[in-house]
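This part of the workshop introduces the protein records we will be handling. A record pairs a protein's sequence with a compact description of its fold. Comparing a sequence with its tokens is the quickest way to learn the format. The record below serves as our worked example for the rest of this section:
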Amino acid sequence: MNPDPGATELDSSVVTPGNLTRDEPDNQTQDQELDPVLVWVPTGRRLISGLLGMNIVLLGAALVAGQAFNPEGLKHQEPQVFMLLLMGASFIWMLWYLLWARKQPGICPHKDHHAGGITIMLVLILFAAASLLLYICRVGYLVSVRECNPAAKVLSPFIEAPFLVLQTYLLWVHSKDCIHRHKIMTRSGLMVILSADLLLWLNAVTEDSIHEEIELEKEDSFHFSNTNSSDISDLEGNSTLCQCSASAACLIFRKGFEILYPFNMEFYLMAGCMIYVMWKNVGRRMSPGHHVTHKLTFRVVYQGGIIYGLVLGALVLVAGVTVFILYQVWVSQRQLRLTAFLIFYGYHIAIMPIMSFCSLAGMLVYRLERRAREGGHNPTRSLDVILLVAAALGQLALSYFSLVAALALGTSAPLADLDLSYSLLSLLELILQNVFIIEGLHRHPNLLVKKKERQRSSIFKPKKKVTAPTQEEKKTSFSLLEGNTSTLPAAQEHDGKQSWTKTAIQEICAFLILSNIMLWVIPAFGVHPQFENGLGKQFFGFSTWFILVNLGQPLSVFYRMHSVGALMELLISA
């Protein structure tokens, strides 16, 4: 008689210290004997779902790219229909999991308490609320111009809104789940949701890019003479956007759609990251008592006495909002266009050296405090590092391309000098902030590393026999150094007192959080000086430079938003 799989997994989660925060490969044979489905499944635990997601994303990306580059070629709205089917399948799986699967005994014996932090969830809910408002504006706008829109496009918000609401609820309640039953179906369902999020984000980027390309090309044709007439005629020939009538309601809906568009793009990126963590946590085993509780951010700020970081960050926010408003008003006016660029570049050139200095100071504080590194495999931490590095590639690429364009065209003009300085400072700030955040994420919240004392050997003292370490010593060494038991530094518990290193880290994190929020707001709501100043277009050409900007800007926006969440974790765990 076969034992209960749920009970087997619960009992095996506390066998040895070697299974702490890791999948347990020792019981793979036992799981295969207990689960008859695994007889015909390949040995790779994530192979089936990974291949499924890869094929869905590639097919969807091909359809979205075809719609973007050749809108007349796909006559039956294949990209919209494909994404509607994908959202429908994701919706059915989420209903299956929420209404039936999660009620099964032993399905979730473990929780990953690093996943789905309170700050990340609050930001996700904020983006979800803004996305719902976007859908209302989108429905109003599409109904107003329904004569020139296909049925799939008009139907899309009615399917996308329930998909977004149910996914937000799934992540709010179950983002920490380590699911141990129906693994194949669970991984496949999560991968379908992840594919839908990535394709919806990609579709949002390309739709925004096409709209921005037409509008900016019409505007820049009156200001710059370096744009080819053939490009203008092609864009005007493809300009089939529906025009609002004279009604005020249509204009209001369209304006709301344009304002709320960035929030929807950021929601899909953040939700996709959290779904990926759930997918990685399927079948994962956590150690008992692995949960580390932290105080809420506002309580930490209130009790920690953070003053200087908040004051300086508030000044950055006020100045940034002023620069943002002035730029949006002046950049469309011929006589004030250069002034708009000057205040934009001047603001960033003043802020970025301060942010770089704060990141460098934070790294020096890390060296003085000497905390131990967290051990064990952690999908959430690994994903945080990957996202920070990958999202920073967008701004890094734009900075290097702008640097090449500014050097090639010469820096005699003041705008070229400012663009060159802005590119160099962006490179420095991104690299230093990434190093500061990544080092902070891997620090242990409570343990400090002592300096290892040198033991002088003497020829008169007999050598001690090397004995096998006890069970407790093995457990301690594994939890501190990720299983490395050879060279273990001594560690001590943090006393919890308010030290100057903790205060310094909290002040630095508070300032960087507010600064990154402002650097997120400025590009998220339509400020693109890299495209509007004309330097990149003059050197690389309009089409090439526009593709670079629209690939790099969304990644740059996502990097600022993700760095805010990571810095909040550092502030709480300081």
In short: The chain has 19 helices and five strands.
